[in-house]
Structure formats: C-alpha cells, structure tokens
TrEMBL record, chains A, B, C:
Protein's recorded name: Mitochondrial import inner membrane translocase subunit
Domain Tim10-like: 17-77
Topology in membrane: Peripheral membrane protein
Keyword Transport attached: yes
Upper taxonomic lineage: Eukaryota, Metazoa, Chordata, Craniata, Vertebrata
Amino acid sequence: MAELGGEAEAAELQRLVAAEEQRARFTAQVHNFMEVCWDKCVDKTGAKLDSRTETCLANCVNRFIDTTLSVTNRFAQIVQKGGH
Amino acid sequence: MAELGGEAEAAELQRLVAAEEQRARFTAQVHNFMEVCWDKCVDKTGAKLDSRTETCLANCVNRFIDTTLSVTNRFAQIVQKGGH
Amino acid sequence: MAELGGEAEAAELQRLVAAEEQRARFTAQVHNFMEVCWDKCVDKTGAKLDSRTETCLANCVNRFIDTTLSVTNRFAQIVQKGGH
Amino acid sequence: QVKVQIAVANAQELLQRMTDKCFRKCIGKPGSSLDNSEQKCIAMCMDRYMDAWNTVSRAYNSRLQRERANM
Amino acid sequence: QVKVQIAVANAQELLQRMTDKCFRKCIGKPGSSLDNSEQKCIAMCMDRYMDAWNTVSRAYNSRLQRERANM
Amino acid sequence: QVKVQIAVANAQELLQRMTDKCFRKCIGKPGSSLDNSEQKCIAMCMDRYMDAWNTVSRAYNSRLQRERANM
C-alpha cells in the first residue's frame, strides 16, 4: 500500500474510526430492537419465519422508532413550556 | 464573579464534583426504583395518577429500601458468624 | 514475607491479577446463571432448598452451557460455509 | 421547576426507559403505522411515567432526609 | 455475505443474546441432558433468531435512509 | 468457609440481585410497612438465594473441571 502523508493518514484514520463507531451504534440499536421485537413477534420457531412474523418485526422496528420520535418531541415541548 | 485563589478554587471544584456525583447516584437509584415500581403499581395509564397508585409508588420505594437494609444487615450477620 | 526481586515480583503480581480476573469472570457467570435458573427452578422459598430444586439448578447450569456450546459450534459452521 | 431540571439532567436515560415502557404498554401487535388510540396511549403513558418519576423521586428524597435525621 | 459480516462483527454479543432467548424458549424444566427435541428446537430457534436479526437490521437501515432523504 | 468468601468478594452485586429477586417474590402490593409475613418471606428467600448460589457455583465449577479434563 502506498505510504500516506501524516495529515492524509490522520484524516483516513479518523474516517475509519467514525465509520466503525457508526456501525457499532447501528448494531447496538439492532440488539435493542431484537430485545423488544423478538418477544412481541415470534411465538413459535418453525422451519422458517412466516411472512406475518416478518411483517410484525419490520413494523415493530418502525413503530418503535415512531414512538421514540413522538416521546422525544413531546418531552422537548414540555421542557420548553417549563414544567409539566 | 470574583477570582478565587488556587486552593479555594480547587476546594470549590471538588465540592461541585461531589454534588454532581451525588445527584447522579440519586438519579440512577430513581431509575432503578422505577424499574421495579412502575410494573408493580401502574396498571392502566389514565388521565392522571390516582391516589392509590401514588401511595403504591411511595410505599414501593420505602419497602424496597427496607428490604435492602434488612437483606444487608442479615447478610452482615451471616458473614460475621462465618458461614451460613 | 521475604523480599522479591523485581522480575519475580512482577511475575507474582501478574499471576495474582490473572487469578483475580478469572475469579471475577467465574462470579459474573454465576450471576448470569442465577438470572436464568432462579426463575426457572425456584417456585416457593421454603425452609430449605428441596432436592428437586437443587437438581433443577445443577441441570440448568449444565444445559445452559450445553446450549451455549451447541449455539456457538453451529454458528461457527454457518459462518464458515459463508452464509446462512 | 426543579422536577423538570432533574428530568433534563438525565433526559436521555429517561427518554429511553420511558419509550421502552410505553411501547410495551401501548403497542400490542405493531401495525403499519401508529394509530390514533396508540398515539393517545403513548402521550398519556409519558405523562404518567413522569408523574410516577416525580412521586418516586420525592419519596426517595424524604426517606433520605429521615435517615439522615436519625443518624 | 453482508449479513454474515454484520453478524461476525458482533458475534459474541449476538451469541449471548441468542443463547439466552433460545434457552428460555426451548428448555422448560432442564433435565439431565439436552434431549433430541430440545436440540432441534435450539437449532431452529437460532436460525429464526438470525433471520429475525436480518429482517430487523434491513428494516432499520431502510428507515434510516428514508429519514436521511427527508432531511 | 469458601462459599462465604466467594460471597464477600462480590457482596455488593450479590446483595443487589438478591434484594431485587426477593422483593419481587415477597412483596405483592407494597403497604405502609414490611409486615411480619413479608419479613419472614424475605429472610427465607435470602437463605434460599444463597443456597441456590452455592449450588449453581458448585455445578459450574464441576463442569469447568470436567471440560478441562477432556481437553
């Protein structure tokens, strides 16, 4: 591999670290969704995931994110109004 | 704000850090109580917390602390007697 | 205690740290087993653990370890085959 | 005033735990969007969670003060 | 390909959580060995857990992309 | 002897988990004080938790030794 100058190397390293951190956050979030959605959507474990379970899992992720956004926005409003 | 000498400043800083740590411990403990007491006391979430739920929550905190003290004291006795 | 030379002392210290780490891992693992097996095996808490509960707890530890090994081996096979 | 300050200091942790509890309470089988009744349930659950947080916080604070007075 | 890579990157955490979920699902009262039906249940549960992981992962990724497009 | 030592080494973690499990087991709806039956239940639950801890610990230790012997 070609040698990189000090600055370019540092920038490249920083980019790699940032990408790695983003992937770690993504993965941690998926573990978190699994904790909630596995129990909600998967009753029996048959030969394959049926389409109802697949839909339930995808909806579960999306509704959980909707809930997070809704809770966060409402909380911000309450805080701005200065009390609840 | 008046300038502080080195020592007074260090003492002030130490006091602030200690207060912050105490607040963090308090908050962590409240999260912990919520984990136990929310499921025990809050069945339905109506237009407001009724007084029965409020009493249940306050009792839950106090009985949890009683339990912690009782468990800790009994454990200390067992350890002192050198076996259980 | 006799004084140790620098190298012997370092080796001894390293041995102690390793032993302490191993004990911490063991203990963490026992806490983990307790989290799973207490709820599975202990229904009522009578005057003593009956032998059925004792057997259940010991089996629970061993079956959990079997499950871990089985899951890990199967996972390694899937990864080696390059997809699932 | 004070209650909101306490809440803000640990807002992220509070929001995560509150979201988790209210999602579990209000969403049975997750559908293709949050329907009206689910949204209302979440808003109420949030308010009750913060009420409960304040109640728990006050009860803990009183107990700490009583314990200190007895020392 | 990609899915396996994601899985390997966090293999240890995944294995722990999967073992925990599948043990709870498949083992009622733990006996003196894993019997055949328990072993089959665990293998199926693993496969479904990884399928579910991939489904959840894809759904999350799509959502992130949609949110970014809306910004 | 040994069992108590193990317990002391990680006393804080043990006390927290034991308190949590025994509170959940013994306290239904928390009242205005710990009544007699709750207090007895907690004491028994503690003893059984420590018995169970020792049983689990021994079982794990035997298994580790068996695995090492097979290597």
